Amino acid sequence: MAAQPRRGGVSVPDRRSASKPDSSILYRIISSSIFSRGKQAASDAAFVSDKLLRSIGKSAWIAGTTFLILFVPLIIEMDREQQFTDLELQQASLLGAPPAAPARS
């Protein structure tokens, strides 16, 4: 019976017997404690950055929707009020009335 090819992934050479440890440089690097600690640190950093990005995204969503709900209608209303004031001043100047001094706040 012929061996079936594996699907996807990287092919790894077959493991050697436990009585004959592998002495290749790659095996020594991968099995070193420094490599495993570095791999764990990278995994932890990826986890923390993922959580941080998710929380920043949620915060941005909350800030954006709050701005749209609270401040955009206020800005529109203030613009509408300014247009109404400008229209009154224009009508008063067309009728010949002396221009009123702008209200100071």
TrEMBL record:
Keywords: Membrane, Receptor, Transmembrane, Transmembrane helix. The chain crosses the membrane at residues 59-76. Residues 1-21 are annotated as: Disordered. CDD domains: TOM22. The keyword Chloroplast does not apply. The keyword Membrane applies. This is Mitochondrial import receptor subunit TOM9-1. It comes from Hibiscus syriacus.
